[in-house]
Amino acid sequence: MTPNNFLDDILSDVHYTPPAPGEETEIECDVAPKELPVGHVLHGYRILKVLGAGGFGITYLAEEKTLERRVVLKENFPDALCHRQSKTLDVVQTSPELNGETFTWAHNNFLREARLLSSLNHPNIAKVYSFFHAHSTSYYVTEFIAGKSLADTVREYSKADLTLSQDALLGVLFRVLDALDYIHSREVLHRDIKPDNILINTAGLPMLIDFGAAREEYGDTGDGVVESVGFSPKEQSVADGKMGPWTDLYALGATFYYLLTGECLPESRQRDLYDMAEKLEEIPRLSETYSPILLRSIQKAINPAIEDRYASAAEWIHALRPIS
To answer: Which of 222, 192, 225, 228 is nearest to 209 (CA)?
Structure first.
């Protein structure tokens, strides 16, 4: 695929260069907190709050001062390999002589994620605005989506003893399937679809987020284990798994299984040996509320056997047409 020109030009000039022997920065005794402080300004963006922090990055809500709009700022920060200097707030490797190659890999993977996102243009995927280098690390800026995750939605409905309507479920499902059909047509796999990674914006539309595990140019086998237990299929939990569109569709089916039941599927390798997951059509409160076509489609998507799942998002969409 061909990335957007503005990011391609910038990223081609950004390279991580490990320090020469004897030039490694020593760890300061007064190491700063890993997150940038609220109110800090870099490249015209003012940090408002921390949205989340994982093993390889930190996400902030920020304000773009020039345009007076809120954005999401993602920072490359592999926390097991680095720390933040208290005086400069720069990101510095903890042990470059031991982890230099891994740190470089993490940095390159962050650039790959930014480049990938910049190449996507779909109404249900957040847009990338810019990319820059600061504090000895990299950042990219994306559209801020005001709303809540599907996980939060399920918890709120459960507390209020409410049931998601079939129309609401289908509205989310069709739009996410359309987004997956789009990225799959560009030979991209998301590989981390789950309730936390689908946001519902203030207009009620789903937005697919967090492409940190995404993979380009998928083939017959995986390039490493990336797994969210209860949502990822078996082929994603082994190093040589055969991944394709069916991999993301399983995760989407598992997400809707969770929406309907309030429970995660059993671990995928366990299901491959002995499937203890309750069939959706056999749950009375579900069969009385939702179309059997919808329930069967989700059941097909989460089949442990690849050959028994949908091969494409378009195939799943077609199966739902009678109730759309």
So the answer is: 192
